[in-house]
Amino acid sequence: MEPVEAALRATLVLTQMAGALIIRHVLELEPLVSLSADELTARLTPAVQGHLDGVAEGTDAPLAQPGHHR
Fold first, then answer.
1. Which of 5, 13, 21, 39 has CB atoms 3.0–4.6 Å from 35's, for a disulfide?
2. How far apart are CA 32 and CA 20, in angstroms?
3. Residue 63 pLDDT > 90, yes or no?
4. Kindly report the CA angle at 4 between 1 and 23, in degrees rounded to 5?
5. CA–CA gap between residue 49 and residue 2 (Å, rounded)
6. HSE-up (13 A, CA, CB side) for residue 2
7. Burial class of residue 51 in the structure, from the number of CB atoms within 10 Å of its CB (0-12 exposed, 13-18 middle, 19+ buried)
8. Number of C-beta neighbours around residue 21 at 10 A
9. Are 20 and 44 in contact (CB under 8 A)?
10. Binning pLDDT at 50, 70 and 90, where does residue 2 land?
11. Would the pTM count as exceeding 0.90?
């Protein structure tokens, strides 16, 4: 994996996690506040895993590389 791709994936994971943290603990918006940690983890896992794997959610197709078209 190219360093640029690794940095992008890491940033996308951080964005997903930071968003959940802000919504749940800073803004305290429902329904995230009321979700158990297990439920929140189960719901966020596919999106985070997709960023780590570099595949579009719900598919096994690799994400398009910047500057390339499918």
1. 39
2. 8
3. no
4. 105
5. 18
6. 5
7. buried
8. 12
9. yes
10. confident
11. no
Which residue type occupies 26?
V
Helix orientation angle between 37-53 and 3-21, rounded to the nearest 10 degrees: 160
How buried is residue 69: exposed, middle or buried, by Cβ count under 10 Å (0-12/13-18/19+)? exposed
Token look-up 């603990």 returns: 25
Structure tokens given for 3: 């360093």
Cis, peptide link before residue 3, omega less than 30° from 0: no
Query: Encoding tokens for residue 53?
Result: 């794997």
pLDDT in tens, 5-33: 899 999 999 999 999 999 999 999 999 99
